[in-house]
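Bug #77: duplicate submission created two jobs. Keeping one. Sequence:
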Amino acid sequence: MTTEIAASTPLVAIVGRPNVGKSALFNRLTRTRRALVEEVAGTTRDRIYGYFEWNGRYVRVVDTGGVEGPEADPFSALIRTQVLGAIEEADMILFVVDASEGMTAADQAITDLLRRSTRPVVLVANKSDRRGARGRLLDFYELGLGEPIDISAYHGEGIGDLLDEVVDRVPRVEAPPREDRLRIAVVGRPNVGKSSLVNSILGQERTIVSDVPGTTRDAIDTPFEFEGHQMLLVDTAGIRKRGKIERGVERHSVQAAEHHISRADVVFLVVDQGDLTVAQDTHIAGAVLDEGKGMAIIVNKWDLAEDRAARPEFAARLDRRYDFAPWAPVQFTSALTGEGVRELLELAVHIQQVRQRRVPTSDLNMLVRRAVSEHGPSNVHGRRLKIMYVTQAEVAPPTFIFFVNDPELLHFSYRRFLENRIRAAFGFEGTAIRMRFRRRSEDRHEVEA
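Kept job's structure:
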């Protein structure tokens, strides 16, 4: 479980045209590198949320994509919709302009857009440390939004003054309560329907959906509640084969997606029902396994399946393909119709409960003793593995420590045998478990074969 700032905390939206430094400001305020920063217009397409604390006051902040005309980018209309959504839910707007370039027609158009909102607006002149920028600050008075606060998000200049202005103008919430949330990462190859599935779960267009691979560039966190359970949903960028990852923005997106897998409690691996044999899917599953996370394999776009009665056959194919993670359940969904979405969230709650399960030490040793007596380890050069004692050291993931005479005598097949027996006896469906074998002298009780 992860701890998140409460949704009742005031929200500030960062808006502006492309490449004025909105994401750099977001990262500066939140002291993170969650938003992608590149010298490429349109790097951020979706809404990204974070928070900061200043003088004992907590404020949430949302980064948005750059607003521009539809002729500039095929995603412009979708980005504009996302920006309008952020403005609507925010308590205050930070309108970021580029002081080094001066006022532009795009800045004027965004000003007209902001005037339709009742939210207070603070004009932020970024990149004011660049040559000639100070002389262009006067131009921004023509926007009619008051005196601009000049800053450099990259170097941190003027940020204190900006924070003072923000906390003076947003509703006062002192030290808001934090909420423990189940963090779910939605991962998969590009264009398998991750964002559509996220939007179906949330019941709103939270992320930009397009049939162009790589539409989602940032990992987008959205808190929500399901049947009394506090959850956080992360729609990650599609993970490609390393040889096919473009430099720059896409490379950062993939790294962020892999980072969010490491921070997740449960991972939804989304695969396309029309193409189940792609090696990259198993690569992603392997990464989830290595991180010791909970996982469910999601067969999306099931409404497009030619034979919808063939679920058992599909599940059997997936079992064979993901034989290294036979514990991962398969769920069939359709983001378009909502089929299987509720069951998916129920499955996530179940998996998280399983990840918190503890096995009494006496029951664990009794099981291992019985397993060894029924099927003992093989001899290796005249020596045999001896298990003295077993205990569960951790949860999430469940971690078991085996004290043995020599870990080098453990064959991978016997390790799998022991894992299967533990899973069968104590029910660890949906989560990876870890088994560690440590050398110990034989002064402990020995589990004999």
